[in-house]
Design a protein that fits this description.
This protein is of the alpha/beta class.
Length: about 350
């Protein structure tokens, strides 16, 4: 049984990453002196026949807390408004061993310098939704994983910011406001998008939905609550870490999206993909390039057209960027546009694919 390959990285971190590591080590030491203990924050994973991708993060928690107090599994937290900055107040624990039980297979994984676990492991889980158990220091919690059936032929990848919810994320000050200050419930849903995704799933039974964003993993619980609250189909979140890397101060959001799409294409070779994004930044360019690389794998690209006001917030002008033309990069996929999910649905109905 072969599993998908995993990306290699430089062994020597950038100076900024080393400074971050020293700061995090100081915080972790002080909290450990106060009795704080490691816990696992689970993220939604996915897999296929014989393997699953396990994603989680090891963090410190007060000694009297229980695993159920992780925000996204706490029913009370799921119902109350939470200011975004609370998601970023965390103390990660690097190099921590986590026991993973995936079906009858047991694995021991080790978190990286940011406390993250993102690894492919062998599994004997059948297609569908399952829970894998993650245990650290005797404290266990479950993480959902979606195992894609070998006969599944289509899947949908959706951007998040300005595609399923309005955030005006690309502008740095507004990004900070939306991510760290606003209550979760203040974020606005894009009309019709949840209904569009549900209708697509009904027309394509078993089709998984993946949510791809340049947002930080810190906001994963809040994003999952937002998607569930507004009726979006459940699916793995594919986010990133905003902090320093082995090569620089910050990660490239565009490169994260390109790498993730290419990884999905490699891991699920039988799938033809539907890509949904918006024209506020780089989605049309990225999707067009991926479609040009894999003309037989991308069947549909749907682009939400931002309003002039949203465009102005996104990149400083009231019109889309000149290079945001999917068809100019790849002629193979069907490309539809609309101001919201309702308009996109009408375009798909007119095209005979919905």
């Amino acid at each position: 049984m072969s599993t998908p390959t995993q990306n290699a990285s430089s062994s020597r971190p950038h100076r900024a990453a080393r400074l971050e590591d020293r700061f995090n080590a100081l915080v972790a030491r002080k909290l450990a002196e106060r009795g704080w203990v490691p816990r696992v924050e689970p993220y939604t994973g996915y897999g296929a026949d014989g393997w699953v991708r396990v994603m989680a993060r090891t963090l410190l928690a007060p000694p009297d807390s229980e695993p159920r107090e992780v925000a996204e599994r706490d029913a009370a937290s799921a119902q109350r408004a939470v200011r975004g900055w609370r998601s970023f107040v965390t103390a990660q624990v690097p190099a921590t061993e986590v026991e993973v039980q995936a079906g009858s297979r047991r694995h021991v994984l080790r978190s990286d310098r940011g406390g993250y676990i993102d690894q492919i492991v062998e599994s004997d889980l059948e297609p569908g939704w399952h829970d894998v158990t993650l245990t650290v220091s005797g404290r266990s919690i479950t993480a959902p994983v979606l195992v894609v059936a070998p006969d599944q032929r289509t899947a949908l990848v959706s951007d998040i910011d300005d595609t399923v919810m309005v955030t005006a994320l690309p502008r740095p000050l507004l990004a900070a406001w939306n991510s760290m200050v606003l209550h979760e419930n203040a974020r606005r849903v894009v009309p019709g998008m949840a209904a569009l995704y549900r209708r697509w799933n009904e027309a394509n039974p078993g089709s998984p939905t993946f949510y791809l964003s340049t947002g930080a993993w810190n906001v994963a619980p809040a994003l999952r609550r937002f998607l569930a609250r507004h009726g979006y189909p459940a699916g793995p979140l594919l986010l990133t870490d905003w902090g320093p890397t082995n090569t620089g101060w910050f990660r490239s959001g565009q490169q994260h999206k390109r790498d993730t799409l290419r990884r999905l294409l490699q891991e699920l070779p039988q799938i033809s993909w539907v890509l949904v994004g918006d024209d506020g930044q780089h989605d049309p360019q990225i999707y067009g390039d991926i479609a040009a690389e894999h003309p037989d794998r991308i069947t549909l690209v749907a682009i939400r057209q931002l309003t002039p006001a949203e465009q102005l917030l996104a990149h400083g002008t009231p019109a889309p960027a000149e290079d945001d033309d999917v068809a100019a990069r790849a002629a193979t996929p069907l490309v539809v546009h609309g101001g919201d999910g309702n308009e996109i649905a009408l375009r798909l109905i007119d095209a005979g694919v919905l």
